[in-house]
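Dear Dr. H.,

I hope your travels went smoothly. While you were away I took the liberty of generating a structure for the chain from your last submission, since the lab meeting agenda had it listed for discussion. I wanted you to have the full record in hand beforehand rather than looking at slides cold. The sequence, exactly as received, is reproduced here:
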Amino acid sequence: MAEAEVKGPVTATEPSEPATARFPFIVGVRGLIDAVLPRGAVVLATLTLGGYVMGLVRDRIFARTFGAGADLDAYNAAFVLPELLLDVLVAGALVAPFVPIFSGLRVEAPTGDRIQGTAEDAANDFGRAVLTLAVLVMAVVAIVLFVFAPQTTDLIAPGFQGDERELYVTLFRIMCITPVIFAGSIVLGEILVADRRFFFYGLAPLCYNAGIVAGTVLLADRIGILAAAVGAVIGAVAHLAIRVVGIARTTFRPRPSFVLRTAAVGTFIRLMIPKMVSQPIEPLTFLYYVALASSLDPGSVSSVSFARNFQSVPVSLIGASFAIAAFPVMSVAAADGDRHAFTRVFGRTLVAIAVLTVGAAVGLVLLGGFVIRLFLGGGAFDDAAIDRTTAVLVVFALSIPLESMTHLLSRALYATRTTLLPSIASVIGFGATVFVAGSLVPSIGIAAIPASFTAGMAVKVAILTVALVPRFRRIGSLAPIEAPDQGPVGRTAVVRVTPRATVRRALATVGLAVALVVAGIGVLQAASLVASNDTLQVAPDVTPWTRVAAAAEPEPGVDVPAAAASPSPSPSGSPRPAGSAGPSAGVSAVPSPTPKPGPFSMDLYRKGDYVGEALDTWCLAAAMQTSMNIMDVGADRTQATQQRLFRLARKLDPAPDGAAEPEGWAEGLTQLGYGRYRVSVQPTIRAAVQLAAKQLRATNRPVGLMVWRGAHSWVMSGFTATADPATTSHFTVTAVRIEDVWYPRFSTIWGYSRPPDALVPVSALDQDYLPWKRPRGTYPDKDGQYVMVIPVG
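The corresponding predicted structure, in token form, is as follows:
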């Protein structure tokens, strides 16, 4: 019977109208999504959003339970090395080559039919071999990490001391369990991606965060921060379990397999090596950030971690999810030699990522403070922690479109079976990140961390774009993968010749996406100005000492640097010649900061003033030389001058250990014409830094701090305080600027030194600035006291 002849209601025996036909709007929306995005992208993005919602619940519970303090810093730091090794040895070996090889082995199967025969067997044997290797490798690594956990502290968190170090070791050992579990789950996840079963793949992270939440809520009252680590193990088990359920719906059956001498495994190993080299880049980046943030204000490590979690939501939700959904389609198209299909999927996905992530970044800049206060505020997470985390997030938002694009660009290259080019891009981008962070930390503090991340992502996008162009042209001529005991698997005889317009369209797509990102960054910068009028830290006033004092006559018999004995004033105030050691004369006076109410900050240091100690016993001489550079126009960093200063300080007041006493420092600067200095002792750190800040403010000259129980010398070139010491005696110093002349060396006792002009919170000074106690010599006026070399008038 024709459809037009049907009368009355449809009976149960008659074919019913499809549900979608009754809702044309749904059909239209679904058609639009299918036209713009690869299949599965929406499912994967939705589940990823669910995982992040659970992650926000986790962060809120962390913030309210533990605050942004030492316990949570130790927890976050304990994750770094296990995750790094998991990424290098398992994830790095899987994300790039597994799906293209697995799909290539199955490419002969008719579209839409269940795969049968040797092609399916070859793919599944390959998957089982990789699964077995991944679990065994991570089991061995986990045992080694457990045994050597204490030795990792100086590498991961050199700023941790005492109880915080012990807590880190305990948490670290618990975390060693999770990489073994994740190794199996990651392999199963890649098989699910190849089969385009994104539901169980995307559900696993949600289960992982749910496990952490459950462990924290149930156990925090009894075992504190250890509850979060136990929850991480529970979550890892849930992560694996849900993917095992998903695998049961495929033809793959997990079991041990040691059949490794196959062409597929050989290709896999060849492709995984470059990816393994570059895979540590992201974990190393955040390991570097942890070390950098641990030298800043307390809670900085946690603020960076929280801000990164918010920033990564749109990156994972849009950039990573869309790229993962497109990856198996691009891999099959590349293996099948279908350049047109590859370009179509790549192009529409790239434009969608660029448009959506720019909008997400703008929204995060405008609403970031509100979101952080909503999800994290309250309890131990106070207003200062909220403001610091928001400031970091605003700068991090600039990187969202760029990082999102790297996911698709990298996977497009992986689909064409190359891992070397993306690895090169990652390494160069990491170099740019470290360079920018090191350059900006002294001037903008914690904001340098997200700013450097944005710079690194921009460099990486540029390199990946250039690398992808010739790979488009090669699609259709890639070498096949051979299955065991048979010829090449894949349609190697088919080389589809497509017009050059296909490549031009691909390049135009990349150009459009990059243009959208560039425009978006401009919008973000404007939005950040609208969103907040606050700066990331109090801007220091530059207040160099007025260098007009003449050099004092040295005592008879004292070995004074030749240039210092008779300085030649320069009416023009030009920099003194290299190798001199006297104060520059004739420099126009620079006024001190104008007294003003509210927080106050000043810093005398300028880039190039710092000089490290040439020999282990020359720390005091190097501190004298750095102090002189701060007070001079130009800088003398020669070893010859440092040696002369060492001999001068030794003659003025030698120490029993072959070095010099702080009195030699004070008297030496005084005799060389840098104003009067004297040694001062105070009973507490707070009293010492209060006096140091007051004298530094009054004289505009640096202060010397005798740290490491009097065994080492620091220069204090600035400070931040609650008020201006020039206007009131009721002020509190919150942080000091220091130049540690041991930098960039490492001490087995004191750890890594901070870079020049580091801003050190007063609350963290007791890690290095300890009461005087020397093993040789008697110091009744110094023992148990905090010793300084201060300017006086």
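Two observations you may find useful: The chain has a mean pLDDT of 77. The radius of gyration is 32 Å.

With kind regards,
E. W.
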